[in-house]
Write a structure and sequence with these properties.
By secondary structure, the protein is mostly helical. Helices cover 56% and strands 8% of the residues. The protein has a domain of 114 residues. β6 and β7 form a beta hairpin. The longest helix is centred in the N-terminal third of the chain and has 39 residues. The protein is elongated.
């Protein structure tokens, strides 16, 4: 029996919506266990317990707001698509490669100077752009398609994705620390819900830690998950501008916005990589 891989890939989008519901369920259970079930009653007692619970609630809400904000941004933000007129503009600026673009009709991707050609989209591809079989389109600086967000992670939402990973792990470990610090005098029903929140967040955090470590390594070398195999055997990756500049290519140069899912207008105007169509290389920096 012939297997239709494209239909299978499209089915992963349905799985993604289930994952969104799972993330929402973990957040709701955690909120109920920490804020409503445990800290809420303590806030009315006054004294040390009230102050401690108030501090816990504030920290929890700050992390939760950043997590939800980053998650919504990475789910809803377009990672970047190739403009419809990009092929025409590219061929016009580079007439010597026009024939190469027109010749890519045999089912294989043909590389050209500064980009390539996608036979699925029948369009040119900017540098670092790749075709996603699930989204069925080319994505600018594509890193991977994430079922957790039902979206591709690319040039324009990679920062939001990384912030989601970081805040998820911080919130999960905060809840785990909170669970360990609580006494065990609660009722069986309370203890069961708190323990459920603890287990869910611990499992979620452990599953993301390795992923975050991997992406931290990719970020430090200005590489995507797709590009890892492309740089094998190279003495130096051409997009590796140094750790500081690599970080700024994703998070921007405005330090006050590094930990928020936002970009300043100056960064959007001055860092082409945030738009996903142009990327500085080592030769550009060293010149």
């Amino acid at each position: 029996m012939e297997i239709n891989l494209f239909r299978f890939c499209s089915g992963l989008r349905v799985l993604g919506y289930v994952m969104i519901l799972l993330v929402a369920a973990i957040i709701c259970v955690s909120y109920y266990a920490v804020v409503l079930l445990t800290c809420g009653p303590d806030l009315l007692r006054g004294g040390y317990h009230s102050f401690l619970s108030f501090t816990i609630v504030i920290i929890f809400h700050v992390l939760l707001i950043l997590l939800i904000w980053s998650y919504i941004r990475v789910v809803l933000k377009d990672p970047g698509s190739v403009p419809e007129n990009w092929t025409a503009a590219f061929a016009e600026e580079n007439p010597e490669v026009g024939s190469s673009l027109a010749a890519a009709e045999d089912g294989f991707e043909r590389r050209t100077r500064g980009g390539g050609y996608c036979t699925h989209c029948q369009n040119g591809k900017p540098p670092r752009c790749h075709h996603c079989s699930i989204c069925r389109r080319c994505v600018l600086k594509m890193d991977h398609h994430c079922v957790w967000v039902v979206n591709c992670v690319g040039a324009r939402n990679y920062k939001f994705f990384l912030l989601f990973l970081v805040t998820s792990i911080l919130l999960a470990y905060f809840i785990n620390f909170f669970h360990e610090a609580k006494n065990h005098s609660a009722s069986p029903a309370k203890s069961a819900i708190i323990f459920l929140a603890f287990v869910l967040n611990l499992a979620f955090a452990l599953s993301l830690v390795c992923f975050l470590v991997m992406h931290a390594s990719l970020l430090s070398s200005n590489t995507t998950s797709v590009e890892v195999h492309e740089k094998k055997g190279l003495a130096r990756w051409k997009y590796d501008l140094g750790r500081k500049k690599n970080f700024e290519q994703v998070f921007g140069m405005k330090k006050s916005l590094w930990f928020f899912p936002l970009f300043s207008e100056d960064d959007l105007d001055n860092i082409p990589a945030l738009h996903g169509l142009e990327f500085p290389t080592r030769s550009d920096v060293e010149a």
